[in-house]
Amino acid sequence: MEDFRSEIKKMSMSEFFPAIVHMKSDGWRLSQICATCIPGGYEMSYSFCRDYDMVTLRIEPGENEEVASITQIYPCAFIQESEAAELFGVKICNIKPDYRNGIYRIDEETPFRDKE
Amino acid sequence: MEKTRLFTLAGRIAGNLFRKPATVKYPFEPVEYPERMRGHVENRIADCIFCGLCQRACPSAAITVNRADGTWTINPFDCVQCGSCVSGCPKKCLTMESGYREPDTVKTSVTMIKTDNDMKEARD
Amino acid sequence: MPNRSIIPFGPQHPVLPEPVHLDLVLKDEIVEEAIPSIGFIHRGLEKLVKKRDYKQYTYIAERVCGICSCGHGLGYCLAVEQVMNIEVPDRAKYLRTIWMEMSRVHSHLLWLGLLGDAMGFESLHMESWRLREKILDMFDETTGGRIIHSVNQVGGVQRDMDFAMLNGILHAVDDIEREMKPLVRTFLHDYSVQTRLKGVGVLSADEAVSLGAVGPMLRASGVDYDARKLGVCAYGDLEFEPAVSKDGDSFARCEVRLNEIFQSFSLIKQAINKIPQGDINVPVKGNPEGEAFIRIEQPRGEAVYYVKGDGSKYLDRFRLRTPTTSNIPPMVSLLRGSQLADVPLIILTIDPCISCTER
């Protein structure tokens, strides 16, 4: 299993969107989106697969910083972005299609967010 | 490519009328449990040293150990039969036995008390 | 002027006992839009990783879902092992492979049964589940649990299989293989099955990739991708080719799963023939520090496990991207433009596991 690439690339918010467009045009498919709470904000990991290689792009938005949705480029991202937005409280804007924060029918708002 | 057919399962369905049932007629027939089956946790309380490792190992917090009173309590309704306590037990007095516990209409817990060389099981 | 109406589908629906809700916007009998909502049984198990230590959490990872239990435990252990740089003994790798393939057989047989049930072909449903019972009995005998096995642990497996057990598995596999033959004929060549499945819910290869389909869903559309080819566990030593079909319709998905059952039989036999002697686990000391992504092929598709540890015995983050999470976007897209009567069938052919999605 060591023959296949699996790397994590950290990047700034401004580099992020062009990188996603680049991944799409290179033929990578979206594998997963993971939100993690870190002090003062979030850590968003977007993993992409092509054949058996895997690359993860990582950004660290601040608590109130807006992240652009990648659903324009990867339409299937809506469910995992909704998960990050509705459970963790990551500010993801312009998720298409817009279900108005309604995919998760839960009582509590953003239950996975780290509360002080 | 084999061609499309009709009534491909008809023979089997007709045959089923004369076959023995595939299931065991529980509870009229006894069920044989395999040796390794994780059914419920048992404690040989005489060997127990109340170290509390099982309490810490339990992922569903079903076990309470009280060293001061010498009691070991399990809540069988919380137990998920994972065997974590059994593999963590230093005295090997916990065992996983086959067979299920009796169902009940209210949640009960089982407390085992160790008195001097004497075992007694109290149910509350 | 066509009638527009909204029909709620679920959270309780006869076709699957799990709570997923869809608002179906209909124009006469044709679905215009399907609006999914989940979260009815969200248990927050990913967050529980901060309250249970990383060894205990194996048992919780296994209990994310009943049918995929074996894989979830395995994927979690593999991720922690990668973080901690643990090399698992060879025998443990083979045992994991055997159990994983048995769980694939039982998951696919369960799905075939549900498919029979969804088509109204009750005998097919019962026959599939009767065969599945033999695999469950072998699980009961070798691991101690019918569906929740609790055999994986960080550093290897907890229980070994002796010669008699391995032989028992071979016998069970031969029995099922023999009895599967008439069922395969019915699934692939029966007139009523074909009329119900062919041309329903067609997903092209390009759509499957861009919508993120995984597992049999992806392979039924002709994309040759199987995460087992990454060579985790003993898969690197065994010979197999991903089962692929071209048409991308419900029938192709059924065909792929049937072929995968036979592929699993062959993998089980190969693994039992090659299994080496030796230890089944290595002692684990210390706490995980670092992060790792692991992909394994669950019966329902590729699952991604992410583990991040900070050197304490509680992990910082555990993420499980289940196959169904990935398969919901293609499902929603397939529903658009389908007949209302086909909705339950299309939902079923993605093999949805809502419990997995709502871990």
Give a nutshell description of this structure.
The complex is a heterotrimer of chains A (116), B (124) and C (359). Chain A has 116 residues and is an alpha/beta fold.
Describe the structure.
The complex is a heterotrimer of chains A (116), B (124) and C (359). Chain A has helices spanning 13-25, 78-88; strands spanning 6-10, 29-38, 41-50, 53-59, 67-68, 92-93. Chain A is α/β, with parallel strands linked by helices and 116 residues long. The termini of chain A are far apart. The mean pLDDT of chain A is 81. The longest helix of chain A is centred in the first third of the chain and has 13 residues, at 13-25. Chain A has one domain (6-93): 2-Layer Sandwich (Beta Polymerase, domain 2). In chain A, the strands form 2 sheets. A 4-stranded mixed beta sheet of chain A has the order 1-4-3-2. Chain B is an alpha+beta fold. Chain B has one domain: 2-Layer Sandwich (Alpha-Beta Plaits), CATH 3.30.70. Helices cover 14% and strands 23% of the residues of chain B. Chain B has 3 helices and 6 strands. In chain B, the strands form 2 sheets. A 4-stranded antiparallel beta sheet of chain B has the order 2-3-5-6. In chain B, strand 5 (110-115) and strand 6 (118-123) form a beta hairpin. The longest helix of chain B has 7 residues, at 10-16. Chain C is of the alpha+beta class. Chain C has a single domain (4-354), classed as Cytochrome-c3 Hydrogenase, chain B, CATH 1.10.645.10. In chain C, the strands form 3 sheets. A 3-stranded antiparallel beta sheet of chain C has the order 1-2-3. In chain C, strands 6-7-8 form a 3-stranded antiparallel beta sheet. The model of chain C has no long low-confidence stretch (mean pLDDT 86). At the A-C interface, strand 2, strand 3 and helix 2 of A face strand 3, strand 6, strand 7, strand 8 and helix 10 of C.
Taking pLDDT < 50 over at least 5 consecutive residues as the criterion, the unreliable ranges of chain A are: none
CATH homology superfamily of chain A: NADH:ubiquinone oxidoreductase Nqo5 subunit
Work out the number of β strands of chain C.
Answer: 8
Count, helices of chain A: 2
Helix coverage percent of residues of chain C? Answer: 40-55%
The stretches of 5 or more residues of chain C where confidence is low (pLDDT under 50) are: none
Number of strands of chain A: 6
The H/E string of chain C reads: EEEHHHHEEHHHHHEEEHHH
Shape of chain C: globular
| Helix and strand pattern of chain A | EHEEEEHE
How many independent structural domains of chain C?
1
CATH class of chain C: Mainly Alpha
